[in-house]
Each structure stands twice: as C-alpha cells, then as structure tokens.
Specification:
Blueprint lengths: L2 H8 L3 H8 L7 H13 L6 H6 L6 E7 L9 H4 L1 H16 L3 E7 L6 H8 L5 E6 L4 H9 L4 E4 L3 H6 L7 E6 L1 H14 L5 E5 L5 H16 L9 E3 L4 H13 L6 E4 L2 H13 L9 E3 L16 E3 L2 H18 L5 E5 L2 E3 L11
Parallel strand pairs: 1-2, 1-3, 3-4, 4-5, 5-11, 6-7, 6-8, 8-9
Antiparallel strand pairs: 10-12
Helix pairs in contact: 1-2, 1-3, 6-14, 10-11, 12-13
C-alpha cells in the first residue's frame, strides 16, 4: 500500500497524508484522526514517523559519537578500539532488546543539530552520547524538550550548573579518579617518585578526573610535579608521538609515565622502542582503559580497566526502559575501575 492509497481511503490529498505522518501542526484534528485511523487499520508503515503516529514505538535509538578534536581526521573514530568497542556493545545490547541503532558522528559544534533533527524527524526514540567534549547547552536543550538521552563520561557538576536534575537525563561514568589513584600508588610502591603524565583532554570529564587524581597523589606524597614531565597527549596517538619525542630530547626522563589512556601509552612505547629506550627497564608505563590490544603487546601493558561493556549495558537498558515505560526521571550510575598489573612496570630502588 502506498501513501496515494491512504489518501484515497481517507478522502484527503497525498500531501495531507505526508503532513500527518510528519506531525505537521497545521492539520485539523479531525483530518489527522481520519488519516491515522486508516494508517492503523491497514498497518501502513512508510517510515519511522508513521509507526510512531500509528501508536507504535519506532524501536530505534541514536548513538552519537562526539569527537570534536578529530575534525581533521574524522575516520579515526571508527579505527579507535575504544569507540568501536563502544559502538559494538550498544548495538549488541539494543538488538537483544529488539531495538535498532543509528550511529551518527559529531565533529563540530554545529553537528549537534543532528541530535535534535533525529528526534524532531522521529527517526529515534532515545539517544546515547559518547566521546570527547559534551556541549552542556546542547544537552540541556534536548532534555528541556523532553527527549530521553543517556550520556557516558559526563561531569556531574555540569548537571548541577545547568539544573538538569529534574530532567530525563541518564548519566553513566566510570570511577576514574579512584582508578588513577590506585594506579599511581602502585607505581609509587615500586619505588618511583619521578612520575610523568600524558594527559587527555581536560574538556572531558574523564580527562579532567585522571589529571586531578595525578596531581592529588603527587601532592599527597610530597612529590614534585615537573612541568616538563606533563605531556599533552589529548587522548591522541599522533599528539603523543610529538610530545614523547620532545621529552626524549630533554635527555632526562621520569622513571615512570602514567598515560591517561592506552592509545597514548602504546604510542609512547612505540617511540621509546624506536629510540632504544626499554620498557620497563628504563621507564615504567601505565595506561588506562584496558583496550584489547593492551594485553597482546610485548611487554603487555599495565593499565586500569574501565568496564565499558557494563557501562554500555546499563546506559542502553536505562534508556530503553525509560522509552518503554515513558519514565521521565534523572538517573546516574558510577562504575568502579580495576587495576590490571602486567609487564610495563618495574621495581626500582627508592630515590
């Protein structure tokens, strides 16, 4: 059955059917009811919007991968182990619940309009945001419109600041501060006090938490933070290569290096190997995330495991639950990390 048939049976024009399907406001209520009655009777489903208007859930959620820092290399997120694992996990969980997933990428501030458009066009019933910078104003605008949305890796202070505790926002975080403290206390226990860091992006909650934990631990132990040992990796391998090369040129290395994600730790190891600097004999390294390749490296990377699968499952389940029950309440979940000791750290004599 085509829209022409629906128009004929309802006694309206095809353009009127289109306006009803797309929820235009300028359709008389009696005309709308007449068209929807025909749509429902003949199970007409031209697109997602029609299914919703006919009283059915569209069973589709949007996954918005935000990586504004990757605007010059957009394909990279699909090659990222972290992002690809996240995308696969969302799809797997959603599919088991009978939902489809539409994946969108956001590389600039203006791309946030993709989120609004997806909701307004009724292509999705809910959305999940993951990745680098989250625009709080854009998120508030979405929640103010009543759309269900889950955000992974988001600063709770922004929720308070923008008064979103009364919204239907779902926030899922890992306990990165605690995980970083545990990792650094481990390396300090091996005798290290000259510890450098490869930072993430402080515009992200995870990047900020991991750096603040580094600063906290160093200060708690009374160890000096040397500015030349703070490498600005921004969660990017390419940036890390340059930062580590600059560090090597100083002719003075820290005895240990904490990287705010595994990609940067592995990038540092590549540079050190190329320059004849041994890990862990010459420098110990700890990463963060525990991406699959971390355990396959030689030496295998000591790291902090983030329970991505558990976080994704919870975010997706809570989102779908809210969609199906039409619940509109704020929810927040925090997941503990796990320290994983492998081969890239070595005990040294106390300095």
């Amino acid at each position: 059955m085509k829209s022409d048939d629906i128009a004929r049976l309802a006694g309206v024009s095809r353009s009127t059917v289109s306006r009803v399907i797309n929820n235009y406001p300028n359709v008389p209520e009696k005309t709308r009811e007449k068209v929807l009655k025909v749509i429902k009777k003949y199970n007409y489903e031209p697109n997602t919007s029609a299914r919703i208007l006919a009283g059915k859930a569209n069973n589709t959620i949007g996954l918005f991968v935000i990586s504004i820092s990757e605007h010059d290399s957009p394909g990279r997120i699909y090659r990222s182990t972290y992002y690809s694992s996240f995308i696969n996990a969302v799809v797997d969980v959603a599919n088991t619940r009978g939902y489809y997933v539409l994946v969108h990428t956001i590389y600039s501030g203006k791309d946030y309009s993709k989120i609004n458009h997806s909701f307004l066009q009724k292509r999705i019933s809910g959305g999940i945001l993951v990745g680098n910078e989250k625009d709080s104003c854009a998120i508030k605008k979405i929640t103010d419109m009543g759309y269900p949305i889950a955000v992974v890796d988001y600063d709770p202070k922004e929720i308070e600041r923008h008064k979103m505790k009364d919204s239907n926002l779902i926030v899922v975080n890992s306990m990165d501060f605690e995980g970083t403290v545990q990792a650094l206390n481990y390396i300090i226990g091996l005798g290290h006090n000259d510890i450098g860091i490869i930072t993430g992006r402080n515009e992200t909650y995870s990047g900020k938490q991991r750096f603040e934990a580094y600063r906290y631990v160093m200060e708690q132990h009374g160890y000096k933070i040397r500015p030349e040992f703070i490498l600005e990796g921004e969660f990017l391998k390419k940036k890390t290569y340059n930062e580590v090369e600059k560090l090597i040129k100083l002719k003075k290395l820290p005895t240990a290096l904490f990287a705010c994600n595994d990609d940067m730790a592995l990038a540092a190891m590549e540079v050190f190997e190329r320059e004849g600097i041994r890990v862990p004999e010459d420098i110990s390294i700890i990463g963060f995330d525990d991406i699959p390749v971390a355990s396959q490296m030689k030496p295998a990377l000591t790291t902090v495991r983030v329970p991505v699968d558990d976080m994704v499952t919870k975010a997706t389940d809570l989102l779908i639950e809210g969609i199906e029950k039409e619940e509109r309440s704020f929810k927040s979940e925090n997941f503990p990390t796990e320290f994983i000791s492998r081969d890239t750290c070595m005990k040294i004599d106390k300095q």
